[in-house]
Here is the input.
Amino acid sequence: MYPCFNFSSAVFEMGNTKVIAAVYGPREVRCEYSMANFSTGDRMRKPKGDRRSTEISLVIRQTMEACILTHLMPRSQIDIFVQVLQADGGTRSACINAATLALADAGIPMRDLVTSCSAGYLNSTALLDLNYVEDSAGGPDVTVGILPKSDKVTLLQMDAKLPMDTFENVMQLAIEGCKAVATYIREVLLENTKQLEYRRGV
Amino acid sequence: MRGLQVSLNQTQKIRLQRSLEKLESLSSKTNRNASVTVADTIPVNYEDGVLKGHGTSELDGEVVATLCGVVERVNKLVYVRALRARYKPEIGDIIVGRVIEVAPKRWRLEINFSQDAVLMLSSMNLPDGIQRRRTALDELNMRSIFEENDVICAEVRGFQHDGSLHLQARSQKYGKLERGQLLTVPPYLVKRRKLHFHHIEQYGIDLILGCNGFIWVGEHVGAKDDMVVDQSSKSEQEDVKSTTYPTSLEEQERTYTPLETRQNICRTANAVRVLSTLGFKGEAEQRSLKKKKG
Here is the structure.
């Protein structure tokens, strides 16, 4: 997390994937009416046009809306800007994790920290956090986002078919991955809070 | 705090390290490890009758934090004091803000809150200092008082029923701020005090610590009553010789800030910047100390 005054930002790295997120707000809604306006600037591996980034921003927005206590901030909007600096698979989950980190740092009230992780199934083994090579092998890719405290799933995306029992294994693996990420994010946040508090002085 | 970019020489580094260690030991003495992050359970010893304050919610009968911050307990009330959050106004706070819109009978101010604050024409003193009803003419002349992008100092008056925040500027010490710098620091670094207006005499500058984290460093303005007299007499003079040349010179003299004062403003502003980047709390005593060192 980096100190800045009118916004909060966070860099999140998962393997070779590196994502930076910035959160502005809550601030007054100026000329448009929207509860939360999320957007993703995405440097893509393949220039596929805008559709991919629109989809990812929708995913991030929906995932984040599930955990932000919006009723505490009437008449204001929160902007989240996510930029992928380095992509090596699992950008979606890295974006969500970075956004969570930045939101928590911005002091925005949330039900829980959303964490996300992807998992796949290749050569009859379940794999956690696929990198680019594993991802492009064409196997199923499941992206899961959970609220670790209440064990609720806020995001589940899969663009292939999987038998039920295999899916359960993969899902279980992804949830474990999410929880590991949550533990790590929690540590970082706690350490940051302590630093800020003691530097502020008595 | 990793993004810190202040170049220090060796002795300064050592001194900073020492003071940080001192601060850490001080805080570990007083703080009972009260820091929490989002979704941490806050331990409550007496289960019944706990009042849940800001930054907390209830989940399965447990009190859970919804913010990152420090747990504070006042009798039965438990709340989380957020650190890097936006400013949360309290009635009577002295704030510094920037005008973003001139609306009918009111100005809208950006004050680092989740909404814009409203300063009504009726809740401020007119420049002529006379208490009277505000007429339509006053409303038309609002831009002669504050324009867009002006920096203003005011006081929080309270929340209206619709949740909007109203300000007031009913004293001579409030009003437009000119000839200086506006700095923004995280609001948690500014402590609420009796005194937010500081006049640093040896440098001839004014320092206004707005509770919203906006800090004004500017040239010292003398008692404003004199200015009012000045202006009125000046306007009379202007009426007399409005087309003659000396008026503009006089005008220039009035808005002229000596180089030394400008340098002092910049030095003070930089000191504030360094302190806030390091995450130290802003207090006037600390400031003056730091300046002496530098």
